[in-house]
Every structure is written in C-alpha cells, then in structure tokens.
Amino acid sequence: MRDGSSLAHTQWRIGITIAQISRRWRARLDARIAEYGLTEARWLALLTLSRGGNGLTQKQLAALLSIEGPTLVRTLDWLEAEALVERRESALDRRAKTLHLTDKAGPLIHRIEGAATQVRAEIMAAIPEAELAACLAVLERILVGLAPPPDPGPKEDPDGHRPA
C-alpha cells in the first residue's frame, strides 16, 4: 500500500476479499440453480419477491435488486411468460404495476431456497458459529459505513431563500 501501513493493507484485502466472495458465492449458487432453467437475474427476482411480499411495484423490486427499472422489465417479461409472476394494476397508483407470485412459482422458489441453504451450509461448514457471528457483526458495520450520506435537503439561494 502507498502508506505502507498494515492497516491500509488489511483494509484493501478486506475489500478485495468481499468482492471475490460475492462473485464466487453467486457463481456457485447460479450453477446449482441452473438446472431449473433460471438465470441469476430470474432467480434473484423470484427470491426477492418471495421475501419482500406480493404487491411490490416494479420500481420497488428494482431498488431491492439494485438495478434500473428498464433492466428488470425483460426479466419480468420472461417470468410472466412462464406464469411465475403476474403484473397487476396498483390500487394506489394507476400508473404503477404490482408484482405477484403465482401458485406455479411456489414449488420453484422452495427448490431455490433449498439450493441456497445447501450452498450456505457447504461454504460455512467448518466455521464455528461464534466466528460467523463476529464476522457478521463486522460486515454489518462495514455496510453502515457504505450507506449514502443523508440528504441535506434543499439548498438556500444566495439571498437566503429556499426553493419552493
């Protein structure tokens, strides 16, 4: 590291390691779920809907998946064509569509959840629970550090007036 400190080197390695873990974990899970004919985008959308509850809007689902709305549309089109998801008019906003899992999606989500549980168990089998808890606590603190700063609100113009 530029400053030569062991702390800077450790921090750098943590960032690299988190990125590698994320890629490898998703690749392992994707390989396990591939037999169901689902891409990562499709199974992530299904799992997020199942965990987030029926009635999410497309915009809410895109935010939960950290993707743009237009990117999600093609995935939802496929899931709808496979009768796994239904789009419905929102009762609160006629411009929005809400997303609902179909009965056909239930058994598939159950198999995806089973595969995910098995992959997690395999990956962490040799790590004691206390170490996992300590790791989780550190990762959650890192996540807090990555949160966007709070919005300061509207700025005043040079005359001290706030925009309407």
UniProtKB/TrEMBL annotation:
Repeat listed as a keyword: no
Keyword Repressor listed: no
Example of a GO MF term: DNA-binding transcription factor activity
InterPro entries for this protein: HTH_MarR-typ (IPR000835), WH-like_DNA-bd_sf (IPR036388), WH_DNA-bd_sf (IPR036390)
This protein's UniProt keywords: DNA-binding, Transcription, Transcription regulation
Domain HTH marR-type stretches: 11-144
Name of the molecule in the record: MarR family transcriptional regulator
